[in-house]
Amino acid sequence: MILPDHQIRDMDLVRPLNPAHLQPASVDLTLGVQVARITFNHPARDLLVVGRDTPSYTYSTHSEQKQVILRPDQLILCQTAETLHLPNNVAGRFEGKSSLGRIGLMTHIAAGFIDPGFHGVLTLEVYNCGPLTLVLTPGIRIGQVAFYLLNALPTRTYGSEGLGSHYQNADTVQGARF
């Protein structure tokens, strides 16, 4: 069951919650101020062995007035300004805004699912697949999250011992952790 606007608000799933960002069955999330650009420190700069090599990241924090420049075919990591607090019986799904997709901005590549029990900001994989350089300003509506009520409690929730939940309680952009 997808949660409607009033249940999203009443369950305190998003902090801070801007009431103007509540949609009928989702809530818009905004771009936070921290950005990470991926850098590679390998002898073969165009090669990364997944699971063995770890990319390096250059982190920067932008003020509300500072813009983030995203050129075509460029990938950066960004955080949401909001923090999610999912109880053990609620999962979430982050999706990009259609208006951003229509200009070639992908706001998550593979990490849209949010497990029950997750607490923290979301790190978004933001990719410009369009032909134009895009200027992003912290505070813009970057995506939306819908919440799903589970029909039973899971055996283990995100962050439980032994699950290897890398991003629990994140308060900044998180790079890849293998």
The total domain count is 1
User: What is the CATH T-level topology?
Assistant: Deoxyuridine 5'-Triphosphate Nucleotidohydrolase, Chain A
Looking at how many chains there are and whether they match, the oligomeric state comes to single chain
Biggest sheet character = 9 strands, antiparallel
Radius of gyration: 17 Å
Q: Any idea what the shape is? A: globular
- The CATH superfamily name is Deoxyuridine triphosphatase (dUTPase)
Roughly how many Å apart are the termini? Answer: 32 Å
Which second-level CATH architecture applies?
Distorted Sandwich
DSSP strand (E) fraction? 35-45%
CATH class: Mainly Beta
List unreliable stretches of 5+ residues: none
Number of strands: 11
Structural class: mainly beta
SSE succession: HEEEEEEHEEEEE
Topology:
Layout lengths: L4 H6 L3 E2 L11 E13 L16 E6 L6 E3 L4 E11 L4 E7 L1 H4 L3 E2 L6 E2 L4 E10 L5 E3 L4 E9 L29
Antiparallel strand pairs: 1-5, 2-3, 2-5, 2-11, 4-10, 5-9, 6-8, 6-11, 7-9
Structure description:
This protein is mainly β. The protein contains 2 helices and 11 strands; from the N terminus they run αββββββαβββββ. Strands 1, 2, 3, 5, 6, 7, 8, 9 and 11 form a 9-stranded antiparallel beta sheet that branches. Strands 4-10 form a two-stranded antiparallel ribbon. The longest helix is centred in the first third of the chain and has 6 residues, at 5-10. The mean pLDDT is 86.
Keywords for this structure?
single chain; 178 residues; mainly beta; Deoxyuridine 5'-Triphosphate Nucleotidohydrolase, Chain A; nine-stranded antiparallel sheet; two-stranded antiparallel sheet; 2 helices; globular
